[in-house]
Amino acid sequence: MAYHLPFRDDLGFCNVFLSALGGDGANTAAKLLFKIGCSHFGLDGGYDARYGSEKKGTATDVSVRFCEVGTPVRQSGPTDRPHYLVVFHPDLIGPLELYRGLQDGAVCIVNTVQTPAAMRELLRLTHGRVICVDAARIARETRSRLNVPLLAVLCHLLQFPDDQVREDVSAQWPRAATQNLAAFDAAIGASVAGEFEPDDRFAYMAPKTTRGPLGWRNMLNGGTIDALTHSTRDRDNRVAARGRVPHFDPAACNSCGICLTVCSDPGGLLWEDGKMVGIDEAFCKGCMRCVEVCPTTKRGHALETPTASTSEGN
Ligand code: SF4
Ligand code: SF4
CA of 299: how far to CAs of 250, 302, 303, in Å? Predict the structure, then answer.
């Protein structure tokens, strides 16, 4: 069918960026989106996912760049200039600076119960559309997953016909087709849109790009894979834990090391000279697996789920 991309940048790409946490299914949703675009709408382009040292709970960026077939694909890797931004967790907009690089007239889809006007403030959107959908509730009530309602709204706004996308969603997860289609329909029906004209309230904020475009003049040794673009070594995982890390009592710890066997990001556990000495908040994702396995010693329980009072002192 004849399909024309709603946006195109100077390289011919329409850029889609999904911001989520590991385990939300953003990666799978973006792969399906790319497959739908290329299989049915004559599109080409690129796909990229970037996530942290460990999977579940870590901030995850997924990019899809669509272009029309025949357009030279001259750029790969993540996009930092989205036309479409999908936000799985609005409380990460500030810490991850998701407002940077938004294209003029960008379309932002946010999983939230709040209004488009409130989200526009958080996104510092100069001009564009904000679509709010309570995807978490929809996923819970339909027994689907967070990625399906957000994918539904994204495809709808990309003007992919709903019937085609529904068919592809069913084929992708045949055993959960009923739940996913219920989530799909609920999301389309429940999304609330706000349109914002330029009003000088917010200025464009450039992406934090430090390297500039790569080409034959500045190609990296080893080819085109730019490890620094994909590295998340500087990313502070506090965005995932929301500052909620286990409370550690060194007096009760016998340094048995059991916590190390379950930690989803062992950098979160600080050890010195064979002794557990604390939690590194920059790596800990707050999953509390270590708390579950930490044994009760004669002096108590070394790791506890934080309460309001213990998290202050951590
Ligand atoms: S599991 Fe508990 S007692 Fe064992 S090393 Fe870890 S914190 Fe210490
Ligand atoms: S809560 Fe415990 S197991 Fe989970 S990431 Fe933090 S230190 Fe590791």
Answer: 10, 8, 12
Identify the bridge partners of residue 223 per DSSP, sorted by sequence position.
Answer: 220
Task: Name the residue at shortest CA distance from atom 7 of ligand 2.
Answer: 268
Using a cut of 0.70, tell me whether the model's pTM lies above it: yes
Determine whether the shortest distance from the Cβ of 81 to ligand 2 is under 6 A. Answer: no
Which ligand sits closest to the CA of 269? 2
- Whether residues 89 and 187 share a domain: the answer is yes
Q: Where a domain ends, among 210, 230, 250?
A: 230
Q: Considering 205, 230, 255, which residue would you say is the last residue of a domain? A: 230
Answer yes or no: is the C-beta of 254 below 6 A from any ligand 1 atom.
Answer: yes
pLDDT, averaged per 10 consecutive residues of the chain (314 residues), comes to 89 95 90 96 90 65 93 83 96 92 96 98 96 98 97 97 97 96 97 94 84 62 57 64 84 94 81 92 84 93 81 45
The span from the CA of 246 to the CA of 3, in Å, is 51
pLDDT for 226 equals 58
Check: CB of residue 280 under 8 Å from CB of residue 267: yes
Find, among 110, 141, 137, the residue nearest to 125 by Cα: 110
Burial group, residue 117, by CB count within 10 angstroms (0-12, 13-18, 19+): exposed
Ligand closest to 237 (CA) is 2
Q: What is the pLDDT of residue 37?
A: 96
* Rg (the chain; Cα; Å): 22
For residue 210, the model assigns a pLDDT of 55
Q: What is the CATH number of the domain that holds 195?
A: 3.40.920.10
Atom of ligand 1 lying closest to residue 260 CA: 6
- Residue 18 CB partners (closer than 8 Å, separation 6+): 26, 29, 30, 60, 61, 62, 63, 64, 86, 88, 150
Task: Confirm or reject: Cβ of 256 under 6 Å from ligand 1.
Answer: yes
